[in-house]
Amino acid sequence: MADLHTLVERLEKVVERLEVVSQSGFSGGDGGGTCEASAAYVEAFDALISGSVAEYLRLSKEIGGDVEKHASMVGAALQSERSILVLASKSQQPPQDQLSAVLKPVSDKIQQVQDFREQNRTSKLFNHLSAVSESISALGWITMSPKPGPFVKEMTDAATFYTNRVLKDYKDTDKKHVEWVKAYINIWTKLQAYIKEYHTTGLSWSKTGPKASAAAIHSAPSGGGPPPPPGLPPPPAPAGHAAEGDVGSRSRLFAQLNQGEAITKGLKHVSDKEKTHKNPDLRSQGPVRSGPKPFTSPKPVPAAAPQKPSAQKQPPLLVLEGKKWRVENYENNSNVVVSNTELKQVVYIFKCVNSTVQVKGKINSITLDQCKKVGLVFEDAVGIVEVINCKDVKVQVINKVPTISINKTDGCHVYLSKDSLNCEIISAKASEMNVLVPVAGGEFTEFPVPEQYKTTWDGHKLVTTVTEIAG
């Protein structure tokens, strides 16, 4: 009897302790250790911002103008990406259908950087803006799996064309721009090393915590501070009634426990016919629900996706601004003529479709950018003729041109004249290129530009040759 009394006292102490814990508003651990371990990659990203990014922002501020404004947008995009990293260190990866909403702030910042370049095409620092605009998509590595590192490398290479132009323009006049190029490229080099160390196969989400959501980005602080304190516990019940009720409940509980074998007298006897494991007929009927159907929450109806506003069609433009002829947004026009040109002037042809542009006289240089099914006919160019981001275009020189550059273009036919047969044609990331050389009778012979190469090691250096494909 003394042992039973001791057991009862111990049970009562356990109950009291459980009640104290219940009323103290107990909250489980917040996974602090895991969060601190995950936050290591946030600290490493902070080091990248305070190092390479800070140097790029400093040089951009010294250059000033559009470069400084553009750099502030890049800084905002990096801070937005940092918020995603902080969220990932504390949250589990959301479902795929919600992931784009979580990452939308970063994509919006990237779009803002690219739009700034498009809105400032007449800027004197256009090559700087283009270098940044072509590579800023590297911040989208957080959506890439399983190889985010090579994606950043690919985006960095996209900026090389423009960074080389900046180096060429300023290497002998202003070293500050040269340092700017080095600082900007260093951001992506450091980011590749950072990804290789912390996010080799994709963004590392936490294994614990709630599922990430778009709302969490706005509500959660970007820093790694402690979580907010738990809310206040519910108000306690009146002391007198609660004490009497608890004592009475415990007394009845222990009174039933002390009945011994008599405690089973109230149980209902189940015959073999009512036992599922002994009656095959019951097993074939499946589970029987005697009560009402349990409540199930209605499935949410997905909201209709907002329709993206269609891009506003810009009017055609043919105007001379300073020394630059701007030919833009022409469609289905086979008689666009740039005349009364001078040697010091340049021609910039942008977003024209299914049109033909003629450039009269001797010009300094010509650029064909983001055009489709466009024919360019010009007489003389003393500098370079560039074809960038185009598709299915034709370029014909009547007299002379020293260099033609083709970059990121699919489909380009170059018609040379007898006086321009010594022209240099430079291509990068381009396909379906053909050079047509004049022959007797005013006809042309077509020669394809090689696209496939073979590289071997000769014991001292790499040797690259054109691959001959048997037809």
Please give the share of residues in helix: 40-55%
Hey, roughly how much beta strand do the residues contain?
A: 15-25%
Number of strands: 16
Major β-sheet, in short? 7 strands, mixed
Backbone CA Rg: 36 Å
Q: How far is it from the N-terminal to the C-terminal residue, by CA? A: 103 Å
Order of helices and strands: HHHHHHHHHHHEEEEEEEEEEEEEEEE
Global outline: elongated
The class by helix and strand makeup works out as: alpha/beta
Q: What is the residue-averaged pLDDT?
A: 80
Strand order of the largest sheet: 1-2-4-6-8-10-12
Low-confidence stretches: 20-38, 220-235, 239-243
| Structure annotation, total helices | 11
Topology diagram in text:
Elements: H1 2-23, H2 32-38, H3 40-63, H4 65-90, H5 96-119, H6 126-135, H7 148-170, H8 175-198, H9 214-219, H10 239-257, H11 280-285, E1 317-321, E2 324-328, E3 336-338, E4 346-350, E5 353-363, E6 365-369, E7 372-381, E8 384-388, E9 391-400, E10 403-407, E11 410-415, E12 424-428, E13 431-438, E14 444-448, E15 453-457, E16 462-466
Parallel strand pairs: 2-4, 3-5, 4-6, 5-7, 6-8, 7-9, 8-10, 9-11, 10-12, 11-13
Antiparallel strand pairs: 1-2, 13-14, 15-16
Helix pairs in contact: 3-4, 3-8, 4-5, 5-6, 6-7, 7-8
